[in-house]
Amino acid sequence: MLQKVTVIGAGNVGATCAQRAAEKELADVVLVDVVPDMPLGKALDLCEAAPVEKHDARITGANDYGPSKDSDVIIVTAGIARKPGMSRDDLIKTNAGIVNTVVKEAAKLSPQAVIIVVSNPLDAMCHVALKASGFPSQRVIGMAGVLDSARFRFFIAEALNVSVENTHAFVLGGHGDTMVPLPRFSTVAGIPITELLPPDQIQALCQRTAQGGAEIVGLLKTGSAYYAPASSAVEMAEAILKDKKKILPCAVYLSGQYGYQDLYIGVPVKLGKGGAEEVIQIKLTAAEKTALDKSADAVRGLVKVLGDLGF
Ligand code: APR
Question: What domains, with CATH codes, occur in the chain?
Answer without folding.
Answer: 4-142 (3.40.50.720), 145-309 (3.90.110.10)
